[in-house]
Amino acid sequence: MIAMDSANKKRPEFINVRVKRQDAPGKQPYWQLFKIEYEPELNVISVLQRIAALAENVDGKKVAPVSWDCGCLEEVCGSCTMQINGRVRQSCSALVDRLLEDNADELVLEPMSKFPVVRDLIVDRKRLFRGLERVKAWVPVDSYYNMGSGERQLRATQEQNYPLSQCMSCGCCLDACPQYTKIELTQESGETDEQFAARQDREFDQAFVGAHALSQAMLFNNHPTGKALAGERLDALTSPGGVQGCGNAQNCVAVCPKEIPLTTSIARAGRATTIHTIKKWFDR
Amino acid sequence: MSKHRVVVIGGGLAGLSSTMKLTELGVEVDLISLTPVKRSHSVCAQGGINSCNDQTRQLGDDEWKHFDDTVYGGDFLNHQPPVKEMAFWAPKVIELMDRLGVPFNRTGEGFIDRRRFGGTLYKRTAFAGATTGQQLLYALDEQVRRRESEGLVRKFEFWDFLGLIQDETGRCRGAVAQDMVSMEIRSFPADAVVVATGGCGLVYGRSTMSVFCTGSAASRCFQAGAKYGNAEFIQVHPTAIPGSDKLRLMSESARGEGGRVWVPRKPHDHRAPRDIPASERYYFLEERYPEYGNLVPRDIATREIFDICVNDGLSVDDQQMCVYLDLTHIPKAELDRKLGGILEIYEKFQGVDPRIEPMRIFPAVHYSMGGLWADYVKSADGGLEAGAPRNHMTNIEGLYAIGECDYHYHGANRLGANSLLSCIFTGLFTGSSILNYVENQSSGHAELESSVVADAVNQQQKRHDDLLTGNPGSDENPYLIHQELGDIMTRAATVVRRNDQLTDAIGKVSDLHERAMKVSLSDTGSWSNQNVIFAKSLQDMFPIAKSILAGALARDECRGAHYKPNFEKPSLTEQDPAARRRQAEEWCDAFEANNEKYLKSTIAQWDSASMQPQLSYEQVDTSLEPPRPRLYGLVGADIIEQVWKERAAAKKAAPAMASN
Fold this sequence. Notes:
The complex is a heterodimer of chains A (284) and B (660). Chain A is α+β, with helices and mostly antiparallel strands and 284 residues long. Helix content of chain A is 39%, strand content 12%. Chain A has helices spanning 2-8, 44-54, 96-102, 126-134, 155-165, 172-175, 193-206, 211-221, 230-238, 251-255, 262-283; strands spanning 14-21, 30-37, 81-84, 87-90, 106-110, 117-119, 122-123. In chain A, the strands form two sheets. A five-stranded mixed sheet of chain A has the order 2-1-5-3-4. Chain A has a two-stranded antiparallel sheet with strand order 6-7. In chain A, a hairpin with an 8-residue loop joins β1 (14-21) and β2. In chain A, α4 packs across α7, α8 (211-221) packs across α11 and α9 (230-238) crosses α11 (262-283). By secondary structure, chain B is α+β, with helices and mostly antiparallel strands. Chain B has a six-stranded antiparallel sheet. Chain B has a five-stranded parallel sheet with strand order 6-2-1-10-19. Chain B is globular. The mean pLDDT of chain B is 93. At the A-B interface, α1, α2, α4 and α5 of A face α1, α4, α5, α10 and α13 of B.
């Protein structure tokens, strides 16, 4: 019904789009205003496509097209995360008609705030994937040969695991998290790519791992074979930057576009690490 | 000799399963992808993955029936030995994915649940919610991350594959790729290269595919001399949600649950749909196909919707071709119960509640059955010879093609839930073939002459630099050229194909190709320049686009997704039984004569001098199951089928006389 109403409302002839731009890492960000013709049923991706084709700002001055990242445009790949009117979300499912209802004057597009800007709206989310490696988010199978089927699983287990497995590594939960703070390093002269990557990983591994990785750890600890690494995952979650880094702000679950029960996972992780620590203490 | 190293290009289901298997066999892999592999287009697959299973077996199903459904659905243009091998691997593939942690839906007792898909009588399809592709991809992504943490895989994400490194004998010795952030161009020497880069939907402007499915990687191999097979076979799905950025799939179940398709009878009727009375609505599927109504088969629905918009000019919207798919007559509670998930997708992206207002839908390009030509070695039992180095090797030695960008498995039309299978199967199956190939080479990646590498890199660096600086006076905008290309291709080479329109399109696309080679870039910088990356992929769309058009023009028949109304097989018209029988005999003669001429793979080779593809034809291996006519909806199908069966029986009875 929302849309019927909005379709009948008087719509502007043009849409103002304010974009926070940055030419490269370490460069000063600046704002640029674009104006595109209003069309019904636009989303933020199609607005950016029109800006790319136009390649001029509101004053008619030629400017480099805005850079942004996108993939499936169906909200399953996790590429196109950015801040839209101050809220972190996927730009493919951000519908312009809805956004104009909140702010009729302009759309404001900014890059995610917790990851280093590569250019304009593109950020470097390497740290997010490093988090998955930290918690060993995989099933440690022996081989990829044909060994028959996996263990039978209760429907209830599948229904508990599937929502967690829908995490598309978009990073919304991290951007909204007060405890997940930005780490931006620069490659030093004389440092090879490999050395730089290793130094980055060391920094990442000390900092808060984030809701997405905590949730993945719980997913794999709940898998019949994935369990084999449960202890190692819990070790990772009890070390610096683990589950105790969570400040319980609950922003993660509020912004997750897939409505993954992240705070439930964090609570499970909290309980599991406590038991794990006590057990280890007794085993000493 | 140092450790074996293979470059895999593309990190979807095929590329990741290949990487995973190769590392298990002790091969080091450099994995190159335009996007973080976890974001590859495989995530978009919803429905599921097919295999015969314990349940269907007890109802009479087996691997041979899965094979038969696949080749019948593909109108017999599939190569049968690889399809056979795939069907026999299918149950094992699903078991492996289960072990890797894919959360397949479960039965009450804890077995993998199955559902039924088009083109088969059996419940073969395993699924994980409505995001099976995503779940399969994640399981493979996790294994590759595991191997990466062990140092066996180096990932190069946000790297664009630009071209092959070929030595003086033509053998592929690695790849050249570009960092899309720093714009650095560098070489990746290897003992073999695997291309697993998916489909080419972006040639049509908008499709159901992700933004990086440009076909440019396959095109770069094609332009380097690789053969391209069956380009003209492009699957178009009847119901997608048109968007100005992308066409999103709307499941067939909307029609299955009673959805009605209509347009206003009056062209350019701007009234809201609910204000248009029933007498002024054209329920064209119901009127034209009184028997099947809105549930006509997929290809017919696609053709009719296309026809009503393009040729009858009755599109609901002037700007964007579409028809109504109307569910508003069905009670809300019923819709929520049966179609909740897919209606939410519509609501999320269109901002319109389809329970209140009819959905706007239009067919959309969905899958490329064709792709890079690749070889295989047939085994004694009619499948593939495991470990034979030539399995999936293109005509460029050392270059392999797997997944959607190969051409064997789906013939003229792909069955639902077979694509995920073919991608994972080819990735796994080719591991030992690639290993055996590299083990037989006397000279590996470490022995490659530096001049060969330097030449390959310099060639790509020159192309890059020329694009940035080469066309100062030009006003050609790559994004606008892409829109024009998509428009031409969508009009001429999707659902309905006419030779005059194809000829016209070939001329227009050739002109556009020349313009695309002179694009002017609005960004000439050397940091994260998306403009130049896009310009290159746009230029490389043209060889594929031209091959699609040329292949379609030359193929004067209807087969699977390739439909030319001027060459449609006629229905029977005679009423007298003897005359009707005679007509059915003639029909079968014509069918056999047509197969003699057209049951062949179209093979394109790129001619860089003329900037046009050169076509030739290759016999299809139909040794396991002889081709038979698809007769759905044809008047006189029963008698034709009878005649055909008699002929097939006669042929079987006299094998000595048959040609070998």
